[in-house]
Design goal:
Helix content: under 10%
Mean pLDDT: 93
Structural class: mainly beta
Radius of gyration: 13 Å
Low-confidence stretches: none
Largest sheet: 7 strands, mixed
Strand content: over 45%
Number of strands: 11
Order of helices and strands: EEEEEEEEEEE
Distance between the termini: 41 Å
Number of helices: 0
Length: 114
């Protein structure tokens, strides 16, 4: 059974950086693209970034372009996608979720303090 597990969230000051990882384990073959979304209380979950199955194509939301990057960790035997976030702003505070083929992870909290 495939599971998605996010990690790397935490508390960071404005302008700081964090790197989130999403590991898809349990039989995944890496055939699917992977997405990152984020959600704050009372708001809809919003798209942040996506990467296709071979890592050759990425897409970023306008709000994070130039600050976030998404990539695949080819050195990891599991299907791992990394979201590197820099120049963080208070508006980036949210629970970040990864999604693959309709399956969601449990989320990881990112808090940016001013």
């Amino acid at each position: 059974q495939v599971q998605l597990v996010e990690s790397g969230g935490g508390l960071v000051r404005v302008g700081g950086s964090l790197t989130l990882s999403c590991v898809a384990s349990g039989g995944t073959s890496g055939r699917f693209g992977m997405n990152w979304f984020r959600q704050t209380p009372g708001k809809r979950r919003e798209f942040v970034a996506s990467i296709n199955s071979d890592g050759g194509s990425t897409l970023l939301a306008d709000s994070v372009k130039g600050r976030f990057t998404i990539s695949r960790d080819s050195a990891n035997a599991d299907n791992t996608v990394v979201l590197h976030m820099s120049n963080l702003e208070p508006e980036d505070t949210a629970v970040y979720y990864c999604k693959e083929n309709g399956l969601w992870g449990q989320g990881t909290q990112v808090t940016v303090s001013s």
